[in-house]
Amino acid sequence: MKKTIVSLALIFLGLVLWSQDQNRSIIKPGEIWPDSDGNHINAHGGGILFNSGTYYWFGEFRLPRTEKDRSRYGVGCYSSKDLLKWKNEGLALRVTGDTSSMLQPGCVIERPKVIFNKKTNKFVMWFHHELKGQGYRAALTGVAVSENITGPYRYIRSLRPNSGVWPQNLPEQFKSLTVNNPDLKNGSGEWKKAVMEGLFVRRDLAGGQMARDMTLFVDKDGTAYHIHSSEENMTLHFSELTDDYLDFTGRYYRVLPGGSNEAPALFYAKGKYFMFTSGTTGWKPNPGRLAVADNLTGEWIPLGNPCRGTEDENKITFGSQSTFVLPVGGKPESFIYLGDRWTPENLADSRHIWLPVEWENEKPIIRWYPSWDLNEPVIPDNVLSSKEIKEGWKLLFDGNTTAQWMNANTKIFPATGWEIRDGSLIVNPGSKAPGGGGDIVTTGKFRNFELTIDFKYSTGANSGIKYFVDTEADNGALASIGCEYQLLDDRLNPDAKEGIEGNRKLASLYDLIAPKNVVDNGPDNWNRAVIIVNGKKVQHWLNGKLTVEYERSTPAWRELVSTSKFRDFRGFGEVPEGRLLLQDHGTAISFRNIKIREF
After folding, report:
1. Do domains 26-161+210-373 and 383-598 have the same CATH topology?
2. What sign does the dihedral 282-283-286-289 (CA atoms) show?
3. Are 307 and 314 in contact (CB under 8 A)?
4. Angle ∠(200,202,207) on CA atoms, nearest 5
5. Contact at 8 Å (CB) between 51 and 329?
6. How far apart are CA 440 and CA 416, in angstroms?
7. Do you find a cis peptide bond into 152, omega within 30 degrees of 0?
């Protein structure tokens, strides 16, 4: 008994330490990310430069919707030693009150990037620049320079690149074509063909090529490239910069012509160049894109969508648009995808989506993690880490098969009503045939254990995770009876208002004990449930917070049961061991990462 108590204490200590780790090394994509002043980091569409052991994050400093001073914006700068705690270094570049300057209040500054020039020992910033009162018609790029990484940066000029110069890879016969845009229907097959054959390159040759969404990339030999959406956002241009990084050499290349790509984010890994981009749907997210090349200025091959999530998640790149890929210092072949979840009505509140870059068949991919640890390798869903294996964890669902589950009554897994999709075990009421579906239970029984389950409930859903289920009790008549961790949309399901003092809400011990400290990620988002049982003592956890704690098989327990809907079930909740149950309550709910360890 003493050994068991010590084991349980170690488990709870581990949970406490895990909670403390969250404050130190946990990235939570899409949540408020406070800086050193307690304000959400205001550096959107940006990039990060690692210099002398410190990371510097540059991005669009957007005016909060309530800000009265509409001239206090530009490029924000933040510094960090660990990529988690960021010090606000102020505005590295800001608009000026000089009315003769192109950088005056009312202009648009987007997607700033900073690189270091080893020859001049200066820091160079480029950004997408639109002029005051002109919308997005100017399509310029601006450049600024500083001897100090945090600034202030001295604004030099804004321009359209490569005026009077043909792309290096534009076929000679395309240069003399006379097709004009007014002669073509926008979006037609003829128009798309004309775009690919240099329609807008010829149009903009004299004044310079358009430059909108942009990034910078320094190749292995120190040559820097300005990479931007051009030709009405239909084609990417890779433009070589001069040795001081302050101008264009005139050597540039068309990449993925006619592909309608923006938001480029490049990196070099495994002997190849990779690039994340997005489609062109304004502030609305769209399916991510991935391309690869053996040479930076050579042919780029599209590889499709790099996202590995649900069908809906893949359609919107987890609600983000790419901006940068960060190589993590000291960790070879380790990269982080940086994206923005734009909030058009209040751009200062746009959220940062940082996700680890993983590899699948030598191609970079990204998966959604509601939180992940910078200091730990990322483990795919429904897979045990080496650490978990050593600690005795076992999978109850591998993302592909239902071998460890069966219908609570028939002892056979339901042919309809449940399905496996996108690595999740899903209650799908729409697919249920007569006699199908129903609650499912584990094939094995458990006594003392820690169970973790990720779940995602639909709007208005009602379901539950039951334990100490005895499918043989009363000749099977009580096959679905057990202690229940309630899964419920508290806001829209009326059952939340039933029972006594909230004892039917999410993470409650259903109809017995109301939950506390509930942190709910809401419908259609993943939550994590944890149930810990050690003898008579039981705990419910939700998203890292203890919600219910009780002791069964005691006089107090029996008194509690006597006032509940379970009062007529003799010995309710007192069996020494039982099966686990996932409830089919007629509403859609998904489960994954179902793991258990016994002690």
Report:
1. no
2. positive
3. yes
4. 90
5. no
6. 12
7. yes
Question: CA-to-CA distance for 451 and 580, rounded, in angstroms?
Answer: 10
Q: Are 73 and 95 in contact (CB under 8 A)?
A: yes
Joined tokens for residue 222 = 């120190």
How many helices and strands (H and E) does the chain possess? 7, 35
Between 361 and 204, the more confident residue is: 204
Tell me which residue has tokens 């940006």.
46
Q: What is the mean pLDDT of the chain?
A: 92
- Give me the residue label for tokens 């530009």: 74
Task: Provide the token pair at 372.
Answer: 């992940």
Under CATH, which architecture does the 26-161+210-373 domain have? 5 Propeller (2.115)
SS3 317: helix
Question: Rounded to whole angstroms, how far apart are CA atoms 358 and 115?
Answer: 25
First vs last C-alpha separation in the chain: 11
Which residues make beta-bridge pairs with 426?
Answer: 419, 590
DSSP conformation class of 379: -
At position 477, the amino acid (one-letter code) is A
Cβ of 300: how many Cβ atoms within 10 Å? 23
Residue 80: which H helix or E strand, with range? strand 74-80
SS3 7: helix
Which residue, chain included where needed, has tokens 């241009």?
Answer: 237
Vertex 260 angle, CA 259 and 265, to 5°: 95
DSSP per residue, 201-222: HHHTTTT-----SEEEEE-TTS
Cβ pair 425, 486 in contact under 8 A: no
* Secondary structure letter of residue 534 according to DSSP: E
CA distances from 128 to 59, 204, 211, 245, 592 (A): 11, 17, 7, 16, 42
Six token digits for residue 555: 């006089």
pLDDT (tens digit per residue) in 492-542: 999 999 999 999 999 999 999 999 999 998 999 889 999 999 999 999 999
Q: Which helix (H) or strand (E) holds 493?
A: none
- Kindly list the distances between the CA atom of residue 299 and the CA atoms of 92, 150, 211, 253, 445, in Å, as whole numbers in the listed order: 36, 36, 21, 10, 57
Q: What residues does each domain of the chain span? A: 26-161+210-373, 383-598
Homologous superfamily (CATH) of 383-598 is Exo-inulinase; domain 1 (2.60.120.560)
At 313-359, the pLDDT tens digits run 999 999 999 999 999 876 777 899 999 999 999 999 999 999 999 98
Burial 439-454 (b: 16+ CB within 10 A, else e): bbbbeebbebbbbbbb
Nearest to 581 by CA among 501, 490, 496, 510: 510
> Residue 54: what pLDDT?
95
C-alpha–C-alpha distance, residues 517 and 502, integer Å: 13
Cα-trace Rg, the chain:
29
